[in-house]
Structure formats: structure tokens, C-alpha cells
Inverse folding.
């Protein structure tokens, strides 16, 4: 409302009124009052001139009497002096004349007789002005004139006021006669007039203000409605423009046969800009004279046309012609749909088929497809499969059944039964029967699909198995090492259907379910939720060994509460969870909390290898700093091919962080062996990207140490030991390639190597006394994760932190405000400044872009007591609490995955070229699609401010 008032009424009503008042003031004070003063002074001057001439005529009369011999000169002068001395005028008859000579000396003054005969050369008024000297000079040069000075008011010598006099020389006697009037009355009249004008001005101003207020009050509603209508119209126009601009069809508006408008799609398609399109005639972009046929199209209709691009090439399109009325003009709306891509699909598919056949030929891969009906017929296959099975003529394989190739119907059923819900079997080792009845070992992969008639089929890839082949391939091909391949699979690939029973089932019911389903466990359900789980191990330990009655409730021997995992988790998460809790069966839940599968440790065994375990195997030959450094340098080449092979970059960064944890633990172990056992329990923890398990190839150290408070050991002794330990750890981490933190956020810094009580004070101070200028810097400490040492000690600090965070609205307000104020080098894509380089170019610091997403998710995680560390798992937990909508959750995941993948991809390219990895992305080197996505992501990041304000800032402001 205020902006509305300022923008409209101030400009159109208040400003003209103010201008009128200003013009009135200027007129009065710059022209009227000065003119009044000038007029008054002119009246005074005219009066003095006439009075002085009258007195001067007396002198002239007596001079004539002298020249006539009637009087002597002395008599004539004395009579003249006596007559002029008696002259009076003015209101109180106290204004007079005075006479001086040219010396000057006073000849006559009616009130100050002491001056008679005295020299007036040094006589001056209170301002130091020698008025009689000035009168003499004026008499000599001009003969007469006006002088102004200060003089006593009439006969009151204590009152000095301004006075204006007129003097005139009487040449025969060399006298100067003068008289003056006081002009303080002029000043008083001017002051009185000024005061009256000011009162008048204030009255006018008050009246105008009332008028403006009345007009404003009456017109504000009208103006508000007008603005609202304008805003709605503008919004409608922008929505329509956005719709048109984002259209995947080209649009051209023709008015009077000229191109009046074209959207960005058609401009990009035909390689013209908007101005160039406006200058074109329709025949210049339509081939075969189509343009002339559409001037009078009648009703809407479609045509197949060929469009001419700026570079002279042609493209196929379907043109829709629609007559329109626009701004009282007749026009045509032309829309163009690109069909050139559809025309080349068949060609592309043919090329892809040839490429697949060439790859299969080179790699000796047998490719085939079979039906999933009762007959399991082989529908298609390549020549390589026929040769692999010993058939000289590929067509001979058409008459061979799939069950025969797999060694019988039982083998076929066994393989098909292993197809999980996802319909994928990856590199399962099986035996195939050749034409001459010999078995060969192959690695078989199966993938279920559905054709256009909704009929299910299965594609298969068979590859000759052999140790030497496998070794050579992994050593030379640059593919993902098999040890990590399983990490790329969804958890559902290892699930089997859960066997469940109701909560009132007996042990006898459970035994029957296990036997009938050949299952390893049974889940006990209460309201479709996991209430307990019974494994074969539970039966042995709690039933057979104790001879429990089979009629008892199954829940009496069940394990409760049940450890579960979400269906969206990775195999890494599942393996870690089972290993940490020493369990062999892990129920898998869908987003609603219903059990949809069971993952067994036995099924993962042989398929999954723990990253830490694999790293330990690589380091068996040596654990010195040199060996650790060599191992870290090999990591990019070892895991680099995995990047981009999964839907989420979390798996990749998790492996990278897992390797770093292994190196860190080895360094800590070596350091403790060298300096001795710790005097008290401690926890070495990481924070920042390492704490979130989101390391990149240029990440630096962010770590600290907590140690136990102990009153029996001097603080200095404890501090000395752990600083020595920390210094050794941080120095060796730097030597192995994890560089030191430039900001000093490391355990080797005494500030970050403290007992538990001090760390509690740190966090309590950061939370309770949140300071806006540093809260963003310390917020990375809230991404802390235990790496080595006493887990319970770390848990105690973590519990304290989350207890302290409860209800701290000021902390979240300042944190949200700082996040909202943080920008990745700039606020607009394409004009960002790289903070690292300081040069203005199209360079984006991708780390800063990622940081905003991380900070946005972190504040919601802290606010909702979510103790997970990674950005993705935090976002998933926030979504499950219904704090994030599905759209926000998907947006955050997409932004993080894209930005982090782009950062790691560029760093891998830098490492491959021998340069140091950094976080700078040169926009022009990205693909058009990557540039488009990056621009959209930055636009989406800017929208985080509104969500932060609504959640954390509005309520705090009250």
C-alpha cells in the first residue's frame, strides 16, 4: 500500500502541490518582498533628495545676498546656519540637517554641538565606517549622493540604528549639506510582511494537505483496484508468454503477411534471433511455395512442410495454420512440430543394432530373447550365440528349445524362479549345453521387458566364463571393477518375498510357514507393521534348546524391535546395517512402512564386498605414509568409471569417503602405536563434507578430537597427549593427500582438541548466543560424524547438541537469514564471479552452489531432530516427516546429484590431464543441456529464500 501511494499519488498529486507552494515561496521571498523593500527605499531616497534641495536653496539665497552686497559672507553664513539648524521634519519633528566643510569639519549639527568646529576625519559609526570622509569623497566626485551608516536614534545616544542620508555640496562656500532618515522602520515593515506571508503560506500548505489527504483517501481504493487489475493482467501475460516460450513447438504470428512474433523454440530451431526473424518473409523459411497458399486458409488445418534454416539446411515439420484476431487485426497463428527426429529413429535404431552386433562380435557375447510363457521359446538370437553353442549354421538353433540349452526344464525353472521383482539377473554363472552335448560355463545376465502388446519377454546376454578372460578384461577395459558393481544395483535386486504371520500366530504356525515356503525367517505383523522377526537361529536358541511348547504365541520367541531398511536404500546401507547389528535377515519396507521384501546376508555374500574391507585388502602389503599416499592417488582411477552409473551420486562419494576413513583409521592406529595408548577415551570425528560422507577429489581436512574429562589426570597432561596425537594424524593425512584446512579447522589446532565438557560449552555457546556474523562458519560443525575411538563419547556429545537445539528459534532464525544471504559468487547465472579467481568470466564455483543445497537441507534436519549426516539421507528423512513435499524432495535430490556429479566429473578430467582439481566450472565448455539444467538449478536455489523465511524467519519476527 505504501509503495502504491508513493508511486502514484506522490508523483501526480503531491509533487504538483509542492511545486505550487515552492513557486509561491520563491515569488514572495525572491520578488515581492525585495520589490517592496526597494520601493520603500526609493520613497525614502526621493524624500531626502527633495528635503536636501530645499535646505540647499536656503544656502543659495544667502549666497545671493552676499554677492549682492546686502550681507557680508560671515553674516550670510551665520544666517544660513541659523535658519537650517532650526529646520525639522518627520513624525516627531526630530529629523534635521547638518553641515560640514570639505576638510571635513563639522560646521553645524543641531543635536551634537560638541562636534562643531571639530575635524571629522576619524569619526566612524559603530561598524567602523568613516561616514564623513565617504560624504566628502562623494561630494568631490559626484556633487551629491546617498550614503548609509549607523547613527544614534534621534536624541537617544544609546540607541544605534541604520540610517540613510543624502548629501549635496554647496560649491561657493565648499560646504556639504546633508540630512538622513532612519530605515529601521523599513526593516520592521519587511519583517512584518514576511511573518504575514509565512502565516499565509502555512495556511495554504495546511489547506492543500487536507485536500491531498481527501483526494488520497478517495482515490486510494480506485488506484489499488487498478493496480490489482494491472498485476493480474501482467501475470496473465507472463503466464501466457512463459507457456509460449517454454513450448516444445515453434510458434509464429503473422499480421499483414509479416512475422509479428516468434518464440524462442522456432528461433533456436531455425538458427535466427528475434530481430532477424522479424525481418524475414514467410517464403524465406518455407520451401516449395507453401507460403503463398496459406494467405486465406479458412479454417484450421495442417500441412507437412520443409523449413529452411539460416545455414541453408532443411528440416521436416508439421505446420498447423489457425486464423486469429489480434488487436483488431486479422492474422495467422502458425505452429510447427519437429518431425525430423521421428524420421531418423528407424535409421538410428538400425545403427544401434549394428553397433550392438559389432560389440557382441568383438566381446564374444551371445545375445538372445525368449518368451516368458509356458513354452519359453527363443524368439531372436545373434550368430555369436549359435557359434558359442557349437552350431555351424545359425538357423539350426531355431529348432532348439531353451530348456535343452540350459540342460533341462528343471534348470530353466530354477533360473526363472530367481528372477526378482525387478526382473533382472546380473552375471549369474550357469552351464549351457552345446550341440555336441558338452557343458560350457557362461556368465548369464537376464532382463525382463514388455512389448507393445503387453507381452512379457526376457533378453539374455551370455559371455564365456574364464578366469583369464575376466582378469584381462578388468585390467584393460576400464570398466567398473566387479568388486564395486553390486553397489550400482538397487536393493530390490537382492530381495525375496517376505513370509509373514499375524501377531496371534503360534510357534507351530511359524514352523509350518518356514517349511512350506523354504524360508529363513518369518515376520510377525501387527496392523501390517513389523512387530517381530523369527529366524531359524531364533528357533534353535529359543525353541529347540528350551523345549518350548509349540502352542505358545510366536511373538514370545521373536526378536523385537525389528531392525529394518527402506526400499530406496543402497546395498551398502543394507550390508553396513546387518554387519553393525550382527543380524542375517533384514526386512525391507516401502515408503508406507509395509514390508515388501527380505534381504539376507547370505544372498549378499559373494556379491557384495565392504569398501573398508576391500581397502584393507589393498593395504595389506604396507601401511606406511608412502603406501597410504600411493593408495590415495590410485583411488580416482579405481572408482572413476563408476561416476554417473547410478541414479544417485551418494554411492560414489560414499566409496570415496569410505576409502578416506580407512586411511584415517590406519594413520590413527599407527600414531597410537608410536606415542602410546591414550590416557582416557577419545573420539576422532570429521565434520563438513567428510562428516557427511560427501568428499570430492580436492576436499581438505575438517576434523577434531573429543576426549574424556578426568579429574585424576591434569588437564595439561591430557591436552599435551592429544595435541601430539592430533598433530601426527593431521600431518600424515596431509602427506597422504588430504590437504590441511586453510582455516585451521583440524584436530591439531588446540581450539578443536578439547575435552567433552569444553565441546559442550562450544555448542551451547553457538546455539544459545547465536551471532549472525559467524553462525554460517560454525554451522559445518553440525555435520559431525564419528570416525575412530569411543563411539559412546561421541554419542553423548551428539545427544547434548540435539537436546540444546530444541526450541532455539533465534539460532534457526540467524542460520536461515545467513543461508538466505549466501550466494554462489553472484545472484544470477552467467554473470557470476568466481571467488577463487576474482576474474569476471562465465565461471561458476560449483562448491558454493552445492553448499546452498547442503545448508538448506541441514537446517531442516537440525530443526527436526534428524541425526543422519548425508544430504540425501537427510532430505529423505525430512520428506518422510512430511516437512518436505514430494516436489521439494525431488528437486533437492536432483539439484544435489547433478551439481555433485558435475563437480566430480570435472575434477576427474582435471586429474586425467595432470592438473590440480578445483571447483570452477567454465560454463561455455558445458553442453547446452548442462547449461540449461545449471541455470534452472540456480533459479531454483534462489527460491529457497522464501521457504526459509516462511519456516524460520517469519515466526521469529513475530
Amino acid at each position: 500500500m505504501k509503495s502504491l501511494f508513493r508511486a502514484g499519488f506522490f508523483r501526480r498529486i503531491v509533487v504538483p502541490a509542492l511545486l505550487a507552494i515552492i513557486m509561491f515561496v520563491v515569488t514572495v521571498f525572491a520578488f515581492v518582498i525585495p520589490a517592496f523593500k526597494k520601493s520603500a527605499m526609493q520613497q525614502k531616497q526621493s524624500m531626502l533628495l527633495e528635503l536636501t534641495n530645499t535646505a540647499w536653496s536656503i544656502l543659495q539665497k544667502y549666497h545671493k545676498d552676499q554677492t549682492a552686497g546686502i550681507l557680508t559672507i560671515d553674516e550670510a553664513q551665520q544666517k544660513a546656519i541659523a535658519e537650517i539648524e532650526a529646520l525639522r521634519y518627520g513624525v516627531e519633528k526630530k529629523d534635521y540637517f547638518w553641515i560640514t566643510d570639505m576638510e571635513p569639519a563639522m560646521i553645524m549639527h543641531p543635536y551634537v554641538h560638541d562636534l562643531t568646529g571639530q575635524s571629522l576625519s576619524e569619526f566612524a559609526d559603530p561598524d567602523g565606517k568613516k561616514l564623513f570622509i565617504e560624504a566628502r569623497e562623494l561630494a568631490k566626485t559626484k556633487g551629491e549622493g546617498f550614503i548609509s551608516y549607523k547613527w544614534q536614534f534621534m536624541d537617544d545616544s544609546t540607541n544605534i540604528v541604520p540610517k540613510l542620508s543624502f548629501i549635496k555640496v554647496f560649491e561657493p562656500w565648499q560646504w556639504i549639506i546633508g540630512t538622513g532618515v532612519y530605515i529601521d522602520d523599513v526593516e520592521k515593515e519587511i519583517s512584518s510582511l514576511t511573518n504575514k506571508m509565512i502565516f499565509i503560506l502555512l495556511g495554504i500548505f495546511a489547506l492543500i494537505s487536507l485536500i491531498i489527504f481527501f483526494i488520497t483517501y478517495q482515490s486510494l481504493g480506485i488506484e489499488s483496484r487498478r493496480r490489482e487489475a494491472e498485476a493480474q493482467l501482467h501475470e496473465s501475460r507472463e503466464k501466457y508468454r512463459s507457456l509460449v516460450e517454454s513450448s516444445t513447438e515453434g510458434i509464429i504470428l503473422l499480421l499483414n503477411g509479416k512475422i509479428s512474433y516468434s518464440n524462442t523454440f522456432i528461433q533456436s530451431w531455425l538458427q535466427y534471433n528475434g530481430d532477424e526473424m522479424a525481418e524475414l518473409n514467410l517464403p524465406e523459411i518455407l520451401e516449395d511455395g507453401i507460403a503463398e497458399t496459406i494467405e486465406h486458409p479458412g479454417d484450421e488445418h495442417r500441412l507437412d512442410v520443409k523449413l529452411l534454416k539460416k545455414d541453408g539446411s532443411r528440416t521436416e515439420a508439421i505446420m498447423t495454420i489457425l486464423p486469429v484476431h489480434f488487436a483488431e487485426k486479422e492474422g495467422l497463428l502458425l505452429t510447427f512440430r519437429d518431425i525430423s527426429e521421428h524420421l531418423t529413429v528407424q535409421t538410428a535404431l538400425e545403427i544401434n543394432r549394428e553397433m550392438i552386433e559389432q560389440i557382441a562380435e568383438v566381446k564374444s557375447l551371445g545375445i538372445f530373447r525368449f518368451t516368458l510363457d509356458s513354452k519359453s521359446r527363443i524368439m531372436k538370437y545373434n550368430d555369436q550365440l549359435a557359434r558359442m553353442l557349437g552350431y555351424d549354421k545359425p538357423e539350426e538353433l531355431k529348432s532348439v528349445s531353451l530348456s535343452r540349452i540350459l540342460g533341462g526344464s528343471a534348470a530353466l525353472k530354477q533360473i526363472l524362479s530367481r528372477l526378482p521383482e525387478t526382473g533382472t539377473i546380473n552375471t549369474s554363472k550357469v552351464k549351457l549345453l552345446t550341440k555336441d552335448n558338452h557343458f560350457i560355463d557362461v556368465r548369464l545376465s537376464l532382463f525382463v521387458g514388455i512389448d507393445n502388446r503387453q507381452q512379457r519377454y526376457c533378453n539374455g546376454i551370455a559371455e564365456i566364463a574364464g578366469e583369464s578372460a575376466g582378469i584381462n578384461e578388468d585390467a584393460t577395459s576400464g570398466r567398473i571393477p566387479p568388486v564395486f558393481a553390486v553397489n550400482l544395483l538397487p536393493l530390490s535386486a537382492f530381495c525375496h518375498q517376505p513370509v509373514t504371520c499375524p501377531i496371534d500366530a503360534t510357534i507351530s504356525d511359524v514352523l509350518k510357514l518356514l517349511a512350506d515356503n523354504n524360508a529363513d525367517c518369518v515376520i510377525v505383523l501387527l496392523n501390517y507393521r513389523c512387530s517381530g522377526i523369527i529366524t531359524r537361529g531364533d528357533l534353535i536358541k529359543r525353541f529347540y534348546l528350551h523345549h518350548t511348547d509349540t502352542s505358545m504365541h510366536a511373538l514370545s520367541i521373536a526378536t523385537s524391535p525389528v531392525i529394518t531398511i527402506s526400499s530406496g536404500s543402497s546395498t551398502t546401507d543394507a550390508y553396513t546395517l546387518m554387519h553393525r547389528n550382527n543380524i542375517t535377515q533384514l526386512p525391507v519396507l516401502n515408503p508406507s512402512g509395509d514390508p515388501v521384501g527380505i534381504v539376507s546376508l547370505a544372498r549378499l555374500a559373494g556379491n557384495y564386498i565392504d569398501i573398508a574391507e576391500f581397502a584393507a585388502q589393498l593395504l595389506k602389503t604396507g601401511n606406511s605414509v608412502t603406501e597410504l599416499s600411493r593408495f590415495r592417488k590410485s583411488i580416482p582411477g579405481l572408482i572413476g568409471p563408476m561416476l554417473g552409473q547410478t541414479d544417485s551420486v551418494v554411492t560414489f562419494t560414499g566409496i570415496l569417503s569410505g576409502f578416506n576413513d580407512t586411511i584415517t583409521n590406519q594413520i590413527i592406529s599407527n600414531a597410537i602405536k608410536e606415542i602410546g595408548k591414550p590416557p582416557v577415551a577419545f573420539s576422532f570425528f570429521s565434520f563438513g563434507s567428510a562428516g557427511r560422507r560427501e568428499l570430492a577429489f580436492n576436499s581438505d581436512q575438517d576434523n577434531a578430537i573429543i576426549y574424556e574429562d578426568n579429574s585424576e589426570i591434569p588437564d595439561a597432561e591430557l591436552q599435551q597427549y592429544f595435541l601430539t596425537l592430533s598433530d601426527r594424524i593431521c600431518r600424515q593425512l596431509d602427506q597422504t593427500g588430504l590437504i590441511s584446512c586453510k582455516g585451521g579447522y583440524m584436530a591439531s589446532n588446540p581450539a578443536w582438541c578439547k575435552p567433552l565438557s569444553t565441546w559442550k560449552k562450544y555448542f551451547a555457546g553457538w546455539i544459545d548466543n547465536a551471532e549472525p556474523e559467524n553462525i554460517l562458519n560454525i554451522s559445518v560443525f553440525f555435520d559431525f560424524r564419528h570416525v575412530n575411538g569411543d563411539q559412546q563419547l561421541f554419542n553423548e556429545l551428539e545427544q547434548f547438541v540435539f537436546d540444546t537445539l530444541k526450541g532455539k528459534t533465534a539460532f534457526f532464525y540467524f542460520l536461515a537469514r545467513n543461508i538466505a544471504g549466501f550466494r554462489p559468487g553472484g545472484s544470477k547465472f552467467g554473470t557470476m564471479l568466481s571467488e577463487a579467481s576474482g576474474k569476471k568470466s562465465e565461471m561458476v564455483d560449483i562448491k558454493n552452489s552445492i553448499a546452498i543445497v547442503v545448508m538448506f537441507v541441514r537446517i531442516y534436519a537440525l530443526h527436526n531432530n534428524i541425526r543422519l549426516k548425508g544430504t540425501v539421507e537427510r532430505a529423505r528423512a525430512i520428506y518422510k516427516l512430511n516437512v518436505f513435499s514430494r516436489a521439494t524432495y525431488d528437486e533437492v535430490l536432483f539439484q544435489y546429484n547433478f551439481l555433485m556429479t558435475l563437480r566430480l566429473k570435472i575434477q576427474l578430467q582435471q586429474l586425467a590431464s595432470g592438473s590440480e582439481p578445483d571447483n570452477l566450472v567454465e560454463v561455455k565448455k558445458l553442453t547446452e543441456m548442462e547449461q540449461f539444467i545449471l541455470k534452472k538449478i540456480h533459479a531454483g536455489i534462489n527460491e529457497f529464500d522464501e521457504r526459509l523465511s516462511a519456516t524460520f524467519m517469519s515466526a521469529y519476527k513475530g
Remarks:
- Residues 184-245 form the longest helix (62 residues).
